[in-house]
Each structure stands twice: as C-alpha cells, then as structure tokens.
Hints:
By secondary structure, the protein is mainly alpha-helical. It has helices at 5-10, 20-29, 41-50, 58-81. The protein has a single domain (5-81), classed as YozE SAM-like (DNA polymerase, domain 1, Orthogonal Bundle). InterPro entries: UPF0346, YozE_SAM-like, YozE_SAM-like_sf.
Amino acid sequence: xxxxxxxxxxxxxxxxxxxxxxxxxxxxxxxxxxxxxxxxxxxxxxxxxxxxxxxxxxxxxxxxxxxxxxxxxxxxxxxxxxx
Length: 83
C-alpha cells in the first residue's frame, strides 16, 4: 500500500535545508487543513493552488510529486524482495 503524500513529505522535513521539498514539508506541517490521508495528485494540487494558507511554486510541487512517486516505486520493489 502506498504511503500518503503527507506521510512521505514529513520524512523530508529539515528546517536547516533550503531544498524545495524541505520547505514544502515545513509549510505543510504547520497547515492544519492539508489533506493528510490521500495520495491523489489532483486533490493535493488543487488544495495547494486554491486553499493552502501559504503559497508555493506549483512547478516545484510537480517535481516533488515525481520524487514521491519514485520513492513509492522503490519502496514497493524493496517489499517484494523481503518475500
């Protein structure tokens, strides 16, 4: 089962980093209305565009999403190796 985007993003938190993923993770951490239990790109993208209490470059979000998907693929491959 795929980790929610929020769960994965929280593993990327690093207040000392200027990396876009770390910045987004810190912003989302402080946003109490962020959709935490989904991995639906459209829902999260619309939220960031229309409802988030902060602004973030959506082009960077697209890149972060691709990284999230890549990590999900790697995690899935690793779980198959356990069997």
